[in-house]
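re: ur question from earlier - yeah i can do the single chain one, its not a big deal. heres the input i used so u can compare w yours
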Amino acid sequence: MSASPSALRVAELGSFLAARRSEVTPEQVGLPGGGSRRLPGLRREEVAMLAGIGASWYAWIEQGRAKNVSLEILKAIARVLRLTEMEFLYMARLAGYTVAHRPQGPIDDERRLAAGVVDSFLPKPAYFLNRYWDIVAANRSAERLLGLEGANHNYLESLFLDPLAPGRFADWEAVATEAVAHFRTQSGEFLGDPRLAALTQYLCECSPAFADLWNRHRFSDGTEVGLELLHPELGPVRLTQICLDFTARPGLQLVLLDTQPGAMSDRLARWGREASRDVVAPA
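and the output i got, formated as tokens:
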């Protein structure tokens, strides 16, 4: 039998805390450093002591055995582990203090909604991702700029499994790190979704780079990110990637690619208009 969503959440909470604990040094929290430590970071009992809770109780939280962890305890742990606001909210959601799952709209409705929106942003590139990071709709500029012509695409599979992907970006590692951090932040809301779990496992098995980034437990809301593409026709293209979520459609996000006003912006606009004219109507 597969684990329940609640069991997956408490297990993820423990994994998250262990990852964060390994990154906090004794010196950062006012403890003496030095000496030999089998693993980097703080020990469990040190976190418990600084948070003012029992060592056994904290160990249970990391082991996924603790239930009904109070918000006060979570705040104390967050303070010790120096969590950001985003990380704390993620931790609180895993502990059951926010809605962890919302219904998903039908896929056909999702595609109709997305297809009607992206073309309104032409000549600027725009596309939609669903909760699995499938590209459910893209305008012609985005298709040409990102190489999305042809069959359906999954953004993460293209980024990590396509051998040509690293050559499309000036800093592929930064792009990959940001993508996994954003995907992890978003996927925490949908733990227990079988397809999401299968996709994550598949990427971890097929891409050591994805597996490494996934296990770092980094988080990002992906709201506004700098991006530089290396395009065969346009050369280096510096963009601002803006992601917008839809409250009524959990997991659906609109991705807009924009440039600063100037020569490249004008060139990209002309290129985008040419891309739209290149679509030949059926005879």
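Residues 22 and 40 are 5 Å apart (CA to CA). not sure if urs matches, ping me
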